[in-house]
Design a protein that fits this description.
alpha+beta; 2 domains
Length: about 300
């Protein structure tokens, strides 16, 4: 998620607002309140909005580089057709002066050069590129043209390759799960489990996002202390601005699900379509072991 603010607001325990949130009605839409990804009688899952940040960066850069390549292609095309027109004008001028014997009768020093690259009355594109565009026989500064062509094609292509590799290599983040039976909140990120007891869950919010505070174990920490991490939820789908009323709807859905069950949020099991990624962040093979260890460390810290 895009971080504009340098510091997060003060965390507030969700339990302190549980009664007030339970008293409020949850708006009904055609599907559960965003960013719900799935709901059944045991779990409520939320998706993060990282795909919007990816697209916000990827799409403008991709379109910009494609536009640069198109402009460069148009410049080459216009130069090719201009060279063809200029060459034909030069040949026609000699024909007008000397007739059908213009090839032998002409004393022009430039005519043989044009005749060597033309096939009839056409200038083949590959011939123009290989024998004419970068030749000192036809242009005053062909080396500068070559350098410009290299820069205007290699840089956009390199950036497009980087963007393509980056887009393919990005992994879809795991959803944030609320487990009603075990009363825990959990997810995972790059092989590490993040979790928190629901009754100890805290959150923070600002104009940009709603942050759920979880805990994780740092393998490099010899004391094995649960470190604080935040999972951002952006119900509007906008990575820059999220209205408070939309954030409140998320909190209402969480509290009603955990305290009253699925039917208080949605009338049936529902599972939405996750954001498109080429790769996903797989669930750790030792998930249960990590989760048990993390929850035990959290309980020890009470």
């Amino acid at each position: 998620m895009l971080r504009i603010v340098k510091s997060l607001p003060v965390a507030k325990p969700l339990a302190d607002e549980s009664a007030q949130l339970l008293s409020r009605e949850l708006p009904r839409f055609k599907k559960p309140t965003p960013p719900v990804l799935g709901i059944d009688r045991i779990t409520l899952a939320f998706k993060d909005n990282y795909v919007a940040l990816r697209n916000m960066f990827f799409i403008p850069w991709m379109l910009g580089m494609v536009a640069v390549l198109c402009l460069q292609g148009e410049d080459v095309y216009r130069s090719w057709k201009g060279a063809e027109k200029s060459g034909l004008w030069r040949i026609d001028l000699e024909i007008e002066k000397h007739g059908d014997d213009y090839i032998t009768a002409s004393d022009s020093t430039s005519l043989p050069k044009y005749l060597s690259v033309f096939e009839g009355r056409t200038l083949p594109f590959m011939t123009y590129m290989t024998q004419m565009r970068y030749s000192h026989d036809f242009y005053a500064y062909p080396d500068r043209t070559r350098q410009t062509d290299i820069l205007m094609t290699s840089i956009p292509i390199t950036i497009l390759l980087f963007l393509g590799t980056w887009s393919v290599s990005m992994r879809r983040h795991a959803p944030l799960f609320f487990d009603r039976e075990r009363r825990i909140v959990y997810t995972w990120r790059f092989g590490e489990v993040w979790a928190q007891r629901y009754d100890r869950l805290s959150y923070a919010s600002n104009f940009q996002s709603l942050f759920m505070y979880l805990r994780r174990l740092d393998p490099k920490d010899e004391n094995e202390r649960p470190w604080l991490v935040s999972y951002p939820l952006q119900p509007s789908g906008n990575p820059l601005v999220n209205a408070r009323i939309l954030q409140d709807n998320v909190l209402i859905a969480i509290v009603k699900f955990m305290e009253q069950g699925r039917d208080a949020v949605w009338s049936e099991d529902w599972h939405g379509r996750p954001p498109f990624y080429f790769r996903i962040d797989p669930k750790p093979q030792d998930f249960d072991q990590q989760l048990e260890t993390l929850l035990r460390k959290i309980d020890m810290g009470e």
